[in-house]
Amino acid sequence: LSSVKSLNRTTHGNHGATSSFYRLCFDTSAGGTVREVCFEIELLAPTPVLGRSFPLFLTQWNHREWALAGVARGYVSVVYPGSDIRDASPLFQEAFGNSTMMLIMARAFVASRTLDMFHPPWTHSLQLPNLTSNQIAISGHSRNGKQSLIATAFDSRITAVVGSSPGAPIAAPYHLSSHNFYGEGPDAGVAGFWWLKSVEQYTAHPEELPVDGHGVLAAIAPRACALSTAWTDHEGDVVFADEMGVRAAQDVYQLYGATDKLRLIHRPGDHHGFISIESYFDFFDKAFDLTPPAFPPPPWRQTYLTPAGFDWAQWAGAYGTSTPLPPGNGSSLEDRLGWVAQLDSNSLCLLYTSPSPRDS
Q1: Could you tell me if 121 and 184 are in contact, meaning their C-beta atoms sit under 8 angstroms apart?
Q2: Could you write out the three-class secondary structure of the chain?
Q3: pTM
Q4: In angstroms, what CA-CA distances link 309 with 65, 84, 130, 260?
Q5: Regarding predicted confidence, which is higher, 324 or 10?
Q6: Which position has the higher pLDDT, 163 or 332?
Q7: Contact call for residues 103 and 133 (beta carbons, < 8 A)
Q8: Quick check: 194 and 231 in contact, CB under 8 A?
Q9: Contact of 137 with 208, CB cutoff 8 Å
């Protein structure tokens, strides 16, 4: 980061909250044909409170209303150009032409570069709001959810993330979100633009990928991470795949003793339906221990809606000893039906000899 220029500042007359625009410029002369990359960000800050520092929330340009919600919750919010309507990532892709970062990774890179502004000497020279350095959150929806998770995986300064319906492959691993699962496979139309073109070679066998989405979640451990997934999403965010990805990443969180830091947020509706940004800030508040003592947060239990939540060891401990072994070859129809229905022969006999309502 070579320079930061203040462009505009507006203060809300009644409450003192501010909106400030800055132009950030980066020296990229070592990268190739472009010597400098510049882009603008908006900084939204609550009313200053003497002696208080604030958590920081990052989101993309098309989620500005999320940033405003963050200000209402006591967060300093930053809106950066990493979305379809305003995007600085192609500038960095051009500047670093020898790199392999495709669109989603490049947008995550913009998020990281935006964070550079909140370190000395810029925090002092620009008189930025006081921030709590270990309370930095990011969120975005759909492809913005993908980049938010990737940015967190690669930038340890980000300490909490909510991926809102990120979909395949970052939240819903290709292993379990391919065409075999009525989801998006490696050939879903964005390879070579969102991801490396070479990913297409795994279309028929996504299980052979060297790494999949749950690896990104694991790289975030032990920091706070949540996936928000819609019950009836039909745009590549398969709930079963999301839940399996979380279960796989929990193994790494367990190594850190931080299994409570990885969670699912289920919501009704389709891919773009019923998004509750307030629930995302509830998760951030819990991660940062910001909930007032008078209002203790409810337990954030991990729940699964699909067979991803099946625990064989737990089931076997509860029912394994009381479940009869399946009948062998040559068993009678009665024995086989009884085993499927978990009924003994007497109960099965009564079931099939009871008079029907029509006979009574």
Answers
A1: no
A2: CCEEEEEEEEECCCCCCEEEEEEEEEECCCCCCCCEEEEEEEEEECCCCCCCCEEEEEEEHHHHHHHHHHHHCCCEEEEECECCCCECHHHHHHHCCCCCCCHHHHHHHHHHHHHHHHCCCHHHHCCCCCEEEEEEEEEEECHHHHHHHHHHHHCCCCCEEEEECCCCCCCCCHHHCCHHHCCCCCCCCCECCCECHHHHHHCCCHHHCCCCHHHHHHHHCCCEEEEEEECCCCCCCCHHHHHHHHHHHHHHHHHCCCHHHEEEEEECCCCCCCCCHHHHHHHHHHHCCCCCCCCCCCCCCCCCCCHHHCCHHHHHHHHHHHCCCCCCCCCCHHHHHHHHHCCCHHHHHHHHHCCCCCCC
A3: 0.87
A4: 34, 35, 42, 16
A5: 10
A6: 163
A7: no
A8: no
A9: no
Report CA torsion sign: 204, 207, 210, 213: positive
Mean pLDDT to the nearest integer, 193-216 = 91
User: What six digits make up the tokens of 3?
Assistant: 């320079």
Phi, psi (rounded to 5 degrees) for 79: -110, 120
Q: Phi, psi at residue 263, to the nearest 5°? A: -140, 160
Tell how far CA 324 is from the center of its chain.
42
Tokens 């300064």 — which residue? 157
Structure tokens at 270: 């389709």
**Six token digits for residue 40:** 């603008």
Cross-strand partners of 345: none
Q: Are 265 and 286 in contact (CB under 8 A)?
A: no
Q: Is 298 left (phi over 0), alpha (psi -120 to 50) or beta?
A: beta
Residues ≥6 apart with Cβ < 8 Å to 350: none
Q: How far is CA 69 from CA 22, 59, 228, 279, in A?
A: 21, 11, 17, 11
Question: Could you report the per-residue pLDDT of 57-88, keeping only the tens digit for each?
Answer: 999 999 999 999 999 999 999 999 999 999 99
pLDDT digits over 1-50, tens only? 999 999 999 988 667 789 999 999 999 988 777 899 999 999 999 988 77
Whether the CB-CB separation of 261 and 221 falls below 8 Å is answered with: yes
Note the maximum CA span of the chain. 90
* 43 φ/ψ angles, rounded to the nearest 5 degrees: -110, 120
CB 147 within 8 A of CB 104: yes
CA distance 215 to 275: 26
**What is the dihedral angle through the alpha carbons of 311, 317, 318, 324, rounded to the nearest 10 degrees?**
100
